[in-house]
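Homework help thread (please don't just give me the answer)

Our assignment gives two proteins as sequence + C-alpha cell strings and asks us to describe the second one. The first is just a warm-up. Here they are:
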Amino acid sequence: MPAFGRRIGEWFVRLKNNFKMPKWMECAWRREACGKNSCRLCGKINRDRKRHLDAGEDPDDLENIFDDVGRSLKETLQMIKADAASKGFDITNIDDIKEPPPPEKFALWRRVRECGKVVVKLARRAEESEELWLGTEEAADLLWYINTLQAKVYRQLCNRWHIKVGDGYGDFDYEYTQYVLKECLRILKKSLTELCKLDSPQKWGFLVTAGELANLEKRILKI
C-alpha cells in the first residue's frame, strides 16, 4: 500500500468514531458521477478539464490525466494534514502498515475475476457481430460494475486481512466497502436480469454469469 494510502487509512482509523464517509465518495466508484461543481470530486475534475481546454490542451490525454492525479493527491494530503492537526493528530510519522497479499492469493477474488473475463468475452463477441444490446444502459452497467466488483472484493479482502492481523487498519473502510459491494451486486443482478430477456447469441453467457454471481454473493458479503 502506498505511503499516501497508509496515511489516509490511519487518519480515518483515528477518526472513525466521529467520521462519516462524505456523499461525494459515491462519485469515485459509480458509473455516473453527479458532475456538479459543488461536489468535491466532480468539481475538481470539472476545473481540471476547463483548465486544460482553456490552455488548448486535451483533458483526456494520459499525460495531463497523470499530472491532474498527482496534483490532486498532493492537495488532498495537505487538507488531511491540516484537518488532522486541528484535531491534535500528527500523521507525519506513522508506522508502516503491513502489506496485504496480492489479489491472486485470494481464491474468492480469482472467482470474481473469472466472471469479469466472461463478461469481457461476451462484449467482444457482441462488438464483432454488432449486437444492439452492447449499446444499452444495462450493458454499460454490466461492464462498469463487474470491474468495480473485482476491485472492491480485493479491497474488502484486504480490509478483512488487516483486521485479522490486528495492525489497526481496515475497520473503518470495511463498513463502506460492504455498502459498495451490495450496490455493485444489486446493479449487476438487475442488468443481467434484463439482458437475459434478450434474444441474443450471448444470452447463455448472461445466464451463466448471473448464476455464478448468485453463487458468489453470500461469500462476497461475508468477507
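The one we have to describe:
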Amino acid sequence: MLQVYTFLHTSEKNDIATAMNCLTEKASEINMREAQFFPKSKYAEALGGSLVKHMGEVFNSKYSIEDGKDSYRVILEECGCIGCIQKDSDEFGLDDTTCRTIFCGACLGGYRLSAEKLGVKFKGSLSPLGCIMTFSSRKDR
C-alpha cells in the first residue's frame, strides 16, 4: 500500500497506465516462468496452480477449484489479497475502485497475458469478494 500511495502521489496520477503495463508484464513473466517447468499440455493447470499458491495460500483466501478435462478454474470466494488492501486503503486515501483497478487489474492482467503467451485460453472476472479465473487448453494448437 505504501508503494502504491507513494507512486500515485509522486506521479500525480499522470502515469498510472504505464505503471500498470509494467506491473502486468512483470507478473506475467513470473507466472510464465513457473508454468514452463511443466509440459505444455499442463500449462492451464500450472497457471491455475500458481493462482492458488499466490492468492489462495499466501493471502489465506477462501477458494475452490474446478479441475475439468481441458480446463482449470479457480474461484476466489474471498480474496485475502484485495481484502487486506481494502482494509487499510482509507489510511492511504484510496477508494475500493482504485484498489481493485490497481491490484485486481494487475493480477488478472498478468494471468491473462501469461495465458496468451503460453497458448492457453483465459477467462477472468471479478466478483464482489474475489475473482474467477479459468485456464483452458487450446484445441487449435
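TA reply:
I won't write it for you, but here's a hint about the kind of observation we're looking for: The chain is about 55% helix and 20% strand.
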